Amino acid sequence: MTDETLRDRAIRLYDAFTHEHRDRRTLLRQMTALAGSTVAAEALIAGIAASPAAAAIVAADDARLRVRKERFVAAPGTQLIGYFASPRAAGTRPAVIVVHENRGLTPHIEDVARRLALAGFDVVAPDFLTPQGGTPTDEDKARELIAKADYDAVIAAAVATIGYMAKGAKGAPRKVGIVGFCWGGALVNRVALAAGARLGAGVSYYGPAPAPEEATKVQVPLMLHYAGKDARVAQTAEPWVAALKAAGKPVEAFTYPGVDHAFNNDTSPQRYDKAAADLAWGRTTAFLHRHLDR
């Protein structure tokens, strides 16, 4: 897709579909009108959508890591499926929770968990669709389930997971951070408000933000990554960042010019921007180590 105007219009249509819970048939009709044929429309959609078949950056069987996927009890009455990844080498490390997009716990998010493990963290990526049977293979169905989820219960489950991960080897306490993308990025902000000092640091990638008046309640260092072309998220993000700074909160916010929402997702060819993703990732891992390492 080389026509930037066509590409940008197609991405806006797809974003409306994924984030405003629109009908796929409507999306196909709109894309067909834009592209000129059903075949071209399907190609547009395929290029923008995340591909579950895309190659992982860190292989699931990477010999440097220990990985497992299992149910865990975050707190009494709160059971979640979690994808765990840790460096194989012995040692005491801080923990990080990875929060998925509105597609649920996908292979891409599991890959992100492995990348963070290689960066020196013990990681869990919880499936916040566990109460609804877990993440389905159909991403449209996953988005439907996300829209129906009890958001307060999800926040509570995330806060409970902080407590679960705060107990390191032999029960020794450790600091816990959280990183989230899109829907998960929005959740990071809410968890920062709910968890208080129990959370060591939070990183949000292009997540819609809370109301600015909530900023005074934040007790945790935040790093916020935004896409320059993401007008939808900017509507809430800009007032949120301004309010955090006005309240004297420890926040680092970065906007990456000329990139789209979900620029970190390497399984979406038309959205992924390697330069921005690499820069944001380097900032993210350095930030987490700075605030979580003892």
Describe the model.
- 42% of the residues lie in helices and 19% in strands.
- The chain has helices at 4-19, 24-35, 38-48, 107-118, 139-148, 151-165, 183-195, 231-246, 274-292, and strands at 65-75, 78-87, 95-99, 122-127, 176-181, 201-205, 222-227, 251-256.
- The relative contact order is 0.12.
- The protein has an 8-stranded mixed β-sheet, with helices on both faces.
Fold topology:
Blueprint: H1 4-19, H2 24-35, H3 38-48, E1 65-75, E2 78-87, E3 95-99, H4 107-118, E4 122-127, H5 139-148, H6 151-165, E5 176-181, H7 183-195, E6 201-205, E7 222-227, H8 231-246, E8 251-256, H9 274-292
Parallel strand pairs: 3-4, 3-5, 5-6, 6-7, 7-8
Antiparallel strand pairs: 1-2, 2-4
Helix pairs in contact: 1-2, 2-3, 6-7
Give keywords.
8 strands; 294 residues
Count the E strands: 8
List the secondary-structure elements in sequence, H or E.
HHHEEEHEHHEHEEHEH
The end-to-end span amounts to: 47 Å
What form results from the Cα inertia axes?
Answer: globular
Number of helices: 9
Please state the oligomeric state of the protein chains shown. Answer: single chain
Question: Main sheet: which strands, in order across?
Answer: 1-2-4-3-5-6-7-8
